[in-house]
Amino acid sequence: MCGLVIELDDQEIHSIKPNHDDVFSRGHICPKAIALQDLHNDPDRLRKPVKRIGSNWIEISWDEALEEVATNLFDYQTNYSADAVGYYIGNPTAHNYGNLTHVGYLFAQLKTRNRYSVSTADEAPHRAVHRHMYGHEFIAPVVDLDRTDHWLVLGANPLVSNGSLMTAPGMPRRLKSMRQRGAKLVVIDPRRTETAAVADEFHFIRPGSDAALLLAMLNHLFTQNLINIGRLDSHIEGLDTVAKEILAITPERAARATGISAQSIKRLAEDLVAAKTAAVYGRFGVSTQQFGGICQWAIHLLNLVTGNLDRVGGVLCNLPALDLAAFPSLKGHRDKWRSRVSQVPEVGGELPGSVLAEEILTEGEDQLRCLLTIAGNPVLSNANGRQLEAALEKLDFMASIDFYINETTRFANIILPPTGHLEHDHYDLAFSMLAVRNITKYSEPVFDKPEGTLHDWEILTALATRLANKNGVDVRAALGHARPGGGPMVSAQRMLDFGIQTGPYGKRARHPLALTLNKLKENPHGIDLGPLQPSFPERLQTANKKIHCAPDIFIQDLQRVETELLTRPPTQSLLLIGRRDARTNNSWLHNSYRMVKGKERCFLLMNHTDMLARQLNDGDIVTVISRVGSIKVSAHGTDNLMPGVVSLPHGWGHTRTGIKLGIASNHAGVSINDLTDEKMFDQTTGTSVLNGVPVSVSASG
Q: Which of 200, 211, 193 is nearest to 258 (CA)?
């Protein structure tokens, strides 16, 4: 979403710089953008399909690779069942519009229930709340960051992330602007993050207890008659039920669970009401815990009852040029089917990633035997990565659409590498929905597609075409329109153009801007579509056009909050949380030398008092043990971490044999997900508990 200026010197990248003329990012650039040069030139990046023969990889033709993958997908579904084949989708897919427009062609042919993605290791609670409260997973109110007077942030570090699930490039500039207009920033986190360091107010909180805090704040507003919904008052239902069901969750009880005083909890709630405008925002830290769904539900309720939902300066829905909320097929659902082994319900059409390993390892009817991964590295990103890699090794067949031989794809029989980031065009479908301002922008590819390569969407549709033929399905019916020689006539770019033209600002929609893809191409710095605007109740997609405040799934889960969070004494174990680093927050960034050079980043942070209690010195090698495994890592003391909490960064652990990542292997680190527990997940959304994992730490012998 950030504008870049990429200068070439005889088809070689000379520099990557921020684009100060970009209508949205206005000169902001992040390390990922700079690393694009290293990714493009990386000698470890695959350019042609490869096949694993024993421990060796050989290049093969596209025709052979696609046919072998399609044949195995077909054969396993024919000889066993549709669910004998599964797929896993990684985070980069959300940033690649060609994947999003064409992946459905392939999935329509597979018809498997073994569907997985990174969602349940990340943002599933957000989508669940959007679906249950507003009627569609993509009706997603975001913080009106540039106009709010009071911003409460929980479990997020936007100075480093630039707003996860809240697209806001240039966060330092935006926070400076907040301060200049007198707005207040309050941060609640187990770690005094980079964002917390510049906040007006900061509170430590015990990991995994945010639900108690948020519900107690709501309780205080109800009991003190401080509810002020405003113009949406006649467009809600179920709020009385919420008030009744959380009556016992008092600030005093929440104080024992969270470590934040009852007085502070009450004041945090009252400050939201007193502010001219306010917004509550919670991200990865509150989503990836045992009550991730409850946390996000309570955040939306706090914005509602303080009059800040669908309000300028509060939280508002974006209206992008291509509106995903306009597609009924993307509304989402829950519990249409369950996993074979543990009977865990699907969420949004996917099973939780935490059950992927057991579906492979547990023998029986419908056992998962054949897997396709797309732009994902779940061995490093999913809970209990050691168990998952043991499962992947047991697969009969695996294929990956990826351009690295990494910790996950090393188990593949065939790897199908797509073109690189700079070799295809770009339009951000998903994250335009989450931008703090309405904007639209299209980026041409920097380089022509190299001869003998395929884009992601071409790989997907080539596989879908072959499967359709094997299934005896008319290819035209399966893929819309097809050329006489096979393959889709409707390219990703043509589909994008159609979506823009029929979108809210489009030519076919008869909007004055009359947007088309060609018009976007004529405006490479982007087109500013204006600030966010109120859109409720018109935008709601619930059956009765009301905001559903008390979805059964969350009301029923309040009993679990009572028993597991408010009644049960806090654990005496140390609690492990993650940590984001701007330069190395994705595993693929670790194969860029400029991203990993310098000081060590993969180490355990501990509070000084916890180190002293264990007779540890700064820099000592320690053993960290959880229920599922152990690691050895250096420990460093800090006062920026709540006592009883330890922290490791995400995405490391490049010690596995068989990977082909030269730089990453020399800066291996350890994987936090060798400690996270696949048995710990949020019951409402299937989201893995990646923050608040009980561990012990001791000196290594």
A: 211
